[in-house]
Request: fold
Amino acid sequence: MRRKTLNILKLMFTVFGPGIVVMLADTDAGSIITGAQSGVVWGYKLILLQLILIPVLFITQELTVRLGVTTGLGHGELIQKHFGKFWACFSVSTLMICCFGAIITQFAGLASVGALFGIPCRLSLSVIIAFLLIIVLTGTYRSVERCAIAIGLFELVFVGVMFATHPSCKDIINCLFNLPITNSSYLYLAAANIGAVIMPWMIFYQQSAIVDKGLKPEYIKPARWDTAIGAVITQTIMIAVIITTASTIGRAHPGKSLQTVHQISDALIPFLGATWGRILFALGMIGASLVATIVVSLTAAWGLGEVTGYKHSLEHKPKEAPWFYGIYIAIIIFGGIIVVSGINLVNLSVAIEVLNAVLLPIVLGFLYLLAVKVLPEKYRLKGFYAVIVGIILAITSLFGCIAGIWGWFAAF
Reply:
């Protein structure tokens, strides 16, 4: 029994990582801010959507597991191989748009955390950029992965804070199915939440990470567990953020939108005190933003490498893959420059998550086609399950896209 347990733990240590890392990155600064805005404006009325998105998120990312372990190719490479250069470039172009938006959001979130403690934006971002460059330029995939997990686990702070606010279980249950689905403001935030949970870069990252880690078909079962556990963790964090802000700011100022990130930390002060409120918020936001920055910047460098053909692996040294590391560095520095120029983080974050939702039909469409046509017979998406998955992905894509566009027109 002891030997069997040790073997299971060894297998988990070998395989686990890509799914948990991408899911921790999923709850990034933009997602936390979107969740906070949802709780403040609509109370507990977007929690049901978060629960529904758990299986949707798993179904989506599980397909990347199948594609990665069976083909040994990244998402962009597979699209190029089976649909041609044009469609690969088109798909990666949407990826780059999402990645640039996400990087700016992460850095804006990190700069806001620094501002809580009186640290100038330029200084905090300079330290963060130096830290990120050192991690990637001096490490292998496994070392970067372990560092990302360690940083990302700070996000669980939000779960502890949720219990500290003593939310009303009765109010939560009453609001679960009381959904104002005809309200354009509600639909706009619903679309933002879909875009905050199912992001285009997640599909590219997890498949490329599985390939870079060298996982084979025999590891598909634990890789699925890695993805499932990550999906539950990230949605638990999102629900915790919604409940926390709904129980604090939302209760004190119902229907009033957030204007600054500082308001989220201020909501914690009555329960945790000024010092601990800021420290715990800072730890959660730093964990969310840093792990997402690592994942998103690597995704952009991987995605471009897959369609251009330059070496794109963390197993290569910078001298061996100059374009890969050059793209990574350029994205990091570009994001820092944009944020230093000054930006409204709350509005930007929600808008970027809505953009993610609007782009879902392209990304999920290619993912589904690859799963149906490219996978080996044993792992191919087929039969009744293929129909169910197709319906789920279609509904998610169309709702996110239509609600997002409708919300944009109504808001602007």
